[in-house]
Amino acid sequence: MGCFWQHFMAQSAFLTWYLKHKWQCEVLLLALFFSVNMVANGYIAYVEKSATGIVFWKPWLWEISSALSVLLILPGLIWLSEQYPLRIQGIRQQMLRHLLASFMFCALHLVLMVTMRSFAYQLAGEDYRFDWSTSNLLYEYAKDVRLYLFFIILFEAYRFVIRRWRGEASKLADAPDLPDTTDVTEPYLTQVLVKMLNQEFLIKLSQVDYIKTAGNYQDLYVKGRAYPFRITQSSLLSQLTPTDFVKINRGEIVNINAVTRFNKLNSNDARLILQDGTELSVHKNYIENIPAKLRVVEV
Prior knowledge:
This protein is α+β, with helices and mostly antiparallel strands. The protein has helices spanning 2-9, 12-20, 22-50, 57-83, 91-123, 134-166, 233-239; strands at residues 168-170, 191-196, 199-204, 210-214, 217-222, 225-230, 245-249, 252-255, 259-264, 270-274, 279-282. The termini are far apart. One of its GO terms (molecular function) is phosphorelay response regulator activity.
């Protein structure tokens, strides 16, 4: 079973397709998760309350409003998990951060949920009253903190799988099992180690076409494929050969050797065309970083 899974996950065609449609797949999976969860919880709530003679739509409204509220908060939760991923180092600081974030998550969830329910009840000519007692708030927090931790762990696990599937880059010094083949006299980073499932291989920085910031990672693009490298942009830029790699906007660095064309735009920004056809935008504040010999405007 393990061999089959590794073989399946390593299929380059499926990987390429998934990464190309990654955003759509993620939205679809989340929509499916929330839809199934709403239907299941709504049905359970209705069955539990039906004996009390409650109106049919109310249990469904409770669950739908709760799920929609979480869905509205989810982008912020995704951002938080990307900016502050789970790590062994600084565990106390992380616990405090997530404790405060869980309080905020619960508060936003309650406010949005109660607002939706109150509006729906008003449309039905009724008055919705939420129990704001301490005991009920503690009950709601106990439910929400579990939901909060579920999503934080889910996002972390998902990104870990994607990184291992795509291949995660690291400095050779971080890989003690592999001899460091870099020249110790070389002042700049020349190659990185990529771990992909059970495989390890080297990528020379000269093979990298461009680098794009993705949260706490820098994606190294080689022949259209991205390898995430956990490092800040400023730290990576300081370790790259300045005559080869230059910053072209807030989130991207380009390998000058991969550039084939430079096009000036009416907005005073510019566009670079790489050898593989990739187009990158150059902000006007970074145009001077492009060597003068490449800054030839085509007529």
